[in-house]
TrEMBL record:
Residues 27-63 form the Leucine-rich repeat-containing N-terminal plant-type domain. This is Polygalacturonase inhibitor-like. The lineage of its organism: Eukaryota, Viridiplantae, Streptophyta, Embryophyta, Tracheophyta. The keyword Membrane does not apply. It comes from Iris pallida. The keyword ATP-binding does not apply. Pfam families: LRR_1 (PF00560), LRRNT_2 (PF08263). Residues 1-21 form the signal peptide.
Length: 267
């Protein structure tokens, strides 16, 4: 799930970059400067110093002069972006990029602290990815205000705790929820993807957390592209009649006491 999303975000970033001829707005420049100044000197590539147009900063994508995407990775093998290693907390100033549609932060082990409340202002957000960082706290409930959100990925962040916000089920466009390899507890909300169109496929990744309870009955009616709740503490019978993918049951493996197709029958 993660690799396909990285590819789609990279293509989205390249498309936005090609349409970035217009100078970015003063408000976006101010927000990016505040973002830059939140980290130690020399964190960012030279493009952040040499260009008067922030749309040409490496890792920044624009459309019609507005910053619409941010992509930061420390991966030395990413040939589309210069590696950036962020040391510090997630800056609140990102929330001032009012046209931002996509944020992708990858492989940042020195990035700490919670997701700032100021990010609640990102009303145009479509792709939200934070992968393999040391950020902490809960998954913010304000994400349910991102009515355009298509994909939510916060994974491999072992300091992310708390429960899965049930309010995510109110997002009619949300097709991908990837919250694998965190430290989440509680139960799986039964209303996830409840507003999704019947023709749309859903992807849910919740593996390697501390989730309890049962699989929601509503999951039997969802058109799944991928479902992975393995390596939790779930129990009970898997809802009958579901078109679960993968069909071999691996998405339900290594739980406390799940049973029923595609796993062995309940006793």
């Amino acid at each position: 799930m993660g690799n396909s999303t990285v590819l789609s975000l990279t293509l989205l970033f390249l498309a936005f970059t090609l349409s970035s001829a217009a100078s970015c707005t003063k408000s976006d420049v101010a927000a990016l400067n505040a973002f830059k100044n939140s980290f130690p000197a020399n964190t960012f590539p030279n493009s952040w110093d040499s260009s008067d147009n922030c749309c040409f900063y490496d890792g920044v994508g624009c459309d019609k002069g507005r910053v619409t995407s941010l992509f930061f990775t420390s991966d030395q093998d990413d040939f589309d972006h210069l590696p950036v290693l962020l040391n510090g907390s997630l800056p609140a100033s990102i929330g001032d990029l009012s046209a931002l549609e996509s944020i992708s932060i990858h492989l940042q082990p020195n990035l700490v602290g919670p997701i700032p409340n100021n990010w609640a202002k990102l009303k145009k957000m479509q792709y939200f990815t934070i992968y393999n960082t040391s950020i902490s706290g809960h998954i913010p409930s304000f994400i349910s205000q991102y009515t355009n959100l298509l994909e939510l990925e916060i994974n491999y962040c072992k300091l992310i705790t708390g429960t899965i916000p049930a309010s995510l089920g109110n997002l009619a466009n949300l097709q991908v929820i990837a919250l694998d390899d965190n430290n989440l507890s509680g139960t799986i909300p039964g209303n996830l993807f409840s507003k999704l169109k019947s023709t749309d496929q859903a992807e849910l990744g919740l593996s390697n957390n501390k989730l309890r309870g049962s699989i929601p009955q509503s999951f039997a009616t969802i058109k799944w592209k991928n479902l992975d709740v393995s390596n939790n503490m779930l129990c009970g019978q898997i809802p009958k009649g579901g078109n679960y993918v993968p069909a071999d049951g691996s998405g339900f493996a290594n739980n406390k006491c799940l049973c029923g197709s595609p796993l062995p029958a309940c006793k």
